[in-house]
């Protein structure tokens, strides 16, 4: 469901641009935002996708896409915000990461009366919806809604293509030390499902649980995937080669995907999804 609303109301008849954020809080602006600060790399990327790049005045560390985002001033990182630097930009809208930014610092921004819009897309449609809502707040609906439509269409095409594909078991490695994965509620877990992958840890209660090597061996996935810079093969999965009995190792089904597109809830998740679907197709051919 897309939580998008554009209304005209407010004090003394002022026009208000109102949307609901991912914490189900209504955010209203009397004018479209022209000085936006983004407090996560994903938020920066979503703003540019929404056509609001020209209105972004500051970002946080690792905001590296699109290239224009790298040229913007930083106000710290997503876990430690430089509030003094942020306030110096006099933002008329701050895009927060619902579960990723420091709670107390976000509360301080609220107390100061800054308009805050929290994002945390957990579904494919949530990504499209976030783009649409941001475009409403920035007054860039034409570009934003077009980008959202393109993403929805691409995901729908993949869903149709892999609707009846042969299931294949997958372990997605988020981190090597400590060993971590994702469950089926995580957006990456939904990518695996989209491509016909069965997440061997899909039923874990936490979104990003810690697990043991023994648990992976017992699950015996047919495919192991992890992320790396630009999807370049590195040594992150080499330790699994010590377990020659693992199905994924026996069939050489150890794959890498570019880290940013698969880990950020942005339109580039589509290209990451296409790649993972292709990798799972290659793995099926080796069984």
From TrEMBL:
One of its GO terms (biological process) is cellular response to iron ion. Keywords: Signal. InterPro entries: ABC_Transporter_SBP, ABC_transptr_periplasmic_BD, Vit_B12_bind_prot. Transmembrane segments: none annotated. CDD domains: BtuF. It comes from the Bacteria. Pfam families: Peripla_BP_2. This is Cobalamin-binding protein.
């Amino acid at each position: 469901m897309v939580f998008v609303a554009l209304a005209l109301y407010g004090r003394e008849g002022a026009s208000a641009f109102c949307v609901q954020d991912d914490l189900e809080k209504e955010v209203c602006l009397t004018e479209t935002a022209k000085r936006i600060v983004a407090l996560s790399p994903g938020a920066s990327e979503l703003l540019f996708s929404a056509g609001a790049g020209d209105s972004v005045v500051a970002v946080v560390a690792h905001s590296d896409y699109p290239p224009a985002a790298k040229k913007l001033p930083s106000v710290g990182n997503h876990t430690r915000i430089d509030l003094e630097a942020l306030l110096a930009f006099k933002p008329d809208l701050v895009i927060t990461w619902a579960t990723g930014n420091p709670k107390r610092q976000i509360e301080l921004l609220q107390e100061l009366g800054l308009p805050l819009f929290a994002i945390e897309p957990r579904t494919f449609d949530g990504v499209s919806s976030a783009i649409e809502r941001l475009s409403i707040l920035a007054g860039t609906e034409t570009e934003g809604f077009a980008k959202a439509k393109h993403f929805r269409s691409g995901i729908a095409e993949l869903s149709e293509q892999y609707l009846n594909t042969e299931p294949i078991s997958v372990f997605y490695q988020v981190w090597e030390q400590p060993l971590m994965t994702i469950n089926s509620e995580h957006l990456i877990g939904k990518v695996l499902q989209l491509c016909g992958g069965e997440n061997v840890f899909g039923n874990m209660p936490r979104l990003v649980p810690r697990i043991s090597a023994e648990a992976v061996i017992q699950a015996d996935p047919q495919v192991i995937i992890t992320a790396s810079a630009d999807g370049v093969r590195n040594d992150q999965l080499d330790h699994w080669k010590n377990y020659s009995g693992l199905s994924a190792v026996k069939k050489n089904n150890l794959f890498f995907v570019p880290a940013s597109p698969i880990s950020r809830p942005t339109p580039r998740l589509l290209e990451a999804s296409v790649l993972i679907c292709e990798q799972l197709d290659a793995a099926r051919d080796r069984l």
